[in-house]
């Protein structure tokens, strides 16, 4: 996968990094604690600060899924999702079978990845969705926390999702691969800031 095409870099020389190098940068303080970055094809991508709507929605989803998550499933918030030696993402949620250890999570065994977006919608729907598709994540939800829409991406092939469907706040959206207990209707949440 040509990550430069995704990130829009020009012909200037670049120094790329590995996941291990970025982790070491964090250990020695080159990347500050709490500083949010992702690594796409070796290039560091600084992440926007999370807004209050993002955090409120995340809280509501944690409460809901914490009550309904089947015992044989795991949903994990804000984990480092290591996809390759030079690529990691920081999804808001991953859902996968409990039988898979966290260190063994790969794109194809993730049942649902969720990105909450209040200030990074273009990135989440564009380059980031392409990375998820490239690594075989079967279903990605990009939730627009401002417009209250769930953009459901399914059927990854050739580095893209062949099916992308937007759903409104009143729609009950059920995952295709994760259990039905992970279905969401955004209108059910109290999202007052």
UniProtKB/TrEMBL annotation:
<protein>
    <submittedName>
        <fullName>Uma2 family endonuclease</fullName>
    </submittedName>
</protein>
<keyword id="KW-0540">Nuclease</keyword>
<dbReference type="InterPro" id="IPR012296">
    <property type="entry name" value="Nuclease_put_TT1808"/>
</dbReference>
<keyword id="KW-0378">Hydrolase</keyword>
<dbReference type="InterPro" id="IPR011335">
    <property type="entry name" value="Restrct_endonuc-II-like"/>
</dbReference>
<dbReference type="InterPro" id="IPR008538">
    <property type="entry name" value="Uma2"/>
</dbReference>
<keyword id="KW-0255">Endonuclease</keyword>
<feature type="domain" description="Putative restriction endonuclease">
    <location>
        <begin position="31"/>
        <end position="185"/>
    </location>
</feature>
<dbReference type="Pfam" id="PF05685">
    <property type="entry name" value="Uma2"/>
</dbReference>
<dbReference type="GO" id="GO:0004519">
    <property type="term" value="F:endonuclease activity"/>
</dbReference>
């Amino acid at each position: 996968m040509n990550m430069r095409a995704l990130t829009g870099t020009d012909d200037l020389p670049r120094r790329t990094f590995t996941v291990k190098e970025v982790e070491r940068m964090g250990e020695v303080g080159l990347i500050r604690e709490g500083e949010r970055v992702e690594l796409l094809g070796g290039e560091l991508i600084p992440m926007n600060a999370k807004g209050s709507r993002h955090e409120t929605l995340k809280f509501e989803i944690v409460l809901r899924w914490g009550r309904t998550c089947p015992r044989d499933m795991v949903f994990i918030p804000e984990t480092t999702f290591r996809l390759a030696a030079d690529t990691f993402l920081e999804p808001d949620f991953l859902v996968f079978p409990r039988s898979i250890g966290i260190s063994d999570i790969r794109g194809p065994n993730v049942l649902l990845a969720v990105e909450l977006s209040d200030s990074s919608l273009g990135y989440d729907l564009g380059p980031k969705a392409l990375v998820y598709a490239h690594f075989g994540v079967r279903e990605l939800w990009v939730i627009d926390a401002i417009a209250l829409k769930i953009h459901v991406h399914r059927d990854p092939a050739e580095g893209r999702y062949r099916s992308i469907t937007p759903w409104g706040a009143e729609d009950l959206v059920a995952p295709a691969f994760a259990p039905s207990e992970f279905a969401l209707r955004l209108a059910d949440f109290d999202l007052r800031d």
